[in-house]
Amino acid sequence: MPHSHHGVLGSAGSVLLTIVFVITAMVYLRGWFQLRRALFIVISLWPSISFVAGLFLIWIAVASPIAALDHELLTVHMLQHLLLMTLAPPLIWLGNPIKFLLYGLPPPFVYRFIAPASCRPWVKRVGSALGNSKFCWLAAAAVLVVWHIPAVFAVGMHSEAWHLIEQGSFLATGLLFWWPVVQPWPSISTPDLSIILYLFLATIPCDILSGFLVFCDRVVYPAYLSSSHLFGVLALGDQQFAAALMWTCVTVVYLIGGAVVTMHLLSPRISPDHIMVQGELWGSALPRTAHSLEAVQHGD
């Protein structure tokens, strides 16, 4: 079947997504500058660099000219999955996006819509469930396995709607997976020893899938048999290279994540008094937001 939906996404869709990414980055940077002026301490530039880099990787995966080649090479298709699920999400969370985006949005919008919604009990219950490490791990593993089943893979290749759902599910579960690892604001907990096991177990589905694709002597996804074989790459060689890319990238990224968590666990602990002082500083910098949330909770 032809891959006509890629042409549509590459013209109007990519422009629209690019505009969305630019606006999101502008709102985030506005919040970063606003918070920097409000606090009496210097805010590091690294979170903003990390967030913008994460957005850029997502743009490469879904809206760049490279993304239009995913129906020609399985390697490009696999690169999209890696960018959306493995590389971009930790960079996004390391940028503490919730905090800075809230400050970047217009205050009336935050007070009228976001503040009341965040105080609803069902929102808190959903947030608590989505932040559960077991759920995050299972969701990411399920999406990875299901979308690489040949029949399901073919649906995503030949349907614009399902292709977007596929990419969205990879990004969503990637963000879920990395939440327990990074623990960005407003999370008050920190990664513990179980996160190392969490990352190690996450490599297993990737190892099984990539190992199967590397050592399989036939093309698993027939859609690439009829591709134009860019750069003279045959379908079977393309499949093996794509699998090797996933195998290597996932292993290295999760190893780095585990090493960072281990270093964090071995580093000196911050005293409770220091945490309390930081909380007071944040509280003094967020008087209107804090008071508005409290007012909503008490029905004022």
Characterization of this structure:
It is globular, with a radius of gyration of 21 Å. The chain has 13 helices and no strands. The protein is 76% helix and 0% strand. The protein is mainly alpha-helical and 300 residues long.
Blueprint (SSEs and pairs):
Blueprint: H1 4-38, H2 46-62, H3 74-94, H4 97-104, H5 107-118, H6 121-130, H7 133-147, H8 150-158, H9 160-182, H10 194-215, H11 235-266, H12 272-285, H13 287-297
Helix pairs in contact: 1-2, 1-4, 2-3, 3-9, 3-11, 5-13, 7-9, 7-10, 8-9, 10-11
Label this structure with key terms.
single chain, 300 residues, mainly alpha, 13 helices, globular, disordered N terminus
Compose a concise summary of this entry:
This protein is mainly alpha-helical and 300 residues long.
Total number of beta strands: 0
Based on secondary structure, the structural category is mainly alpha
Distance between the termini: 59 Å
Strand content: under 5%
User: What's the alpha carbon Rg, rounded to whole Å?
Assistant: 21 Å
Number of DSSP helices? 13
Low-pLDDT parts are 1-8, 271-300
Please tell me what the overall shape is.
globular
- What is the total domain count? 1
Mean pLDDT: 85
Largest sheet: none
Q: Name the helicity range.
A: over 70%
Order of SSEs: HHHHHHHHHHHHH
Oligomer: single chain
